[in-house]
Amino acid sequence: MKLLLLCLGLILVCAQQEENSDVAIRNFDISKISGEWYSIFLASDVKEKIEENGSMRVFVDVIRALDNSSLYAEYQTKISKEFYLLPMDQRSSELCSFSSTDDGYNVFRISEFENDEHIILYLVNFDKDRPFQLFEFYAREPDVSPEIKEEFVKIVQKRGIVKENIIDLTKIDRCFQLRGNGVAQA
User: Fold this and answer.
1) Which Gene3D superfamilies match (predicted)?
2) Among residues 34, 90, 102, 112, which one has the fewest Cβ atoms lying within 10 Å of its Cβ?
3) What is the pTM of this model?
4) CA neighbor of 152 nearest in space, from 129, 136, 130, 174
């Protein structure tokens, strides 16, 4: 049953790629994703997942495309006022990929947003208790223009996320003290 649900979710997310015109999706060179990124926004239809101490409240540091068609990413999270480094290896297949977490199965895709300076990670979680969708907006710089922020808000609102469930991460502590040193706190 779990496998069937995962396959259905993967098919639905990948199928949206063709019909969804509100997110800029192109066959981009996955190697262009490599480098430093900054988390700008989190948006979800289940807000507690992205609020402080939420399981999906993470801050991107670096993403690398590896030779074996997988992605390596370093995220940071804040738990009880301490910051921790969260390395992640993820097998990729074009724009769609999947993994398993404590929250259930995640199916996600990475989309360019106008150019290679901004990307959107769109994740659908298939938890048996409470499935949800999540959007993460990353940029090459620590902040972006108000116009770009407005465009992202419009995109996620079209996908059913209410404005109250969009968190502007540029207004909070994003764990910059761990950025680049590769050392997690004990």
Assistant:
1) 2.40.128.20
2) 102
3) 0.74
4) 136
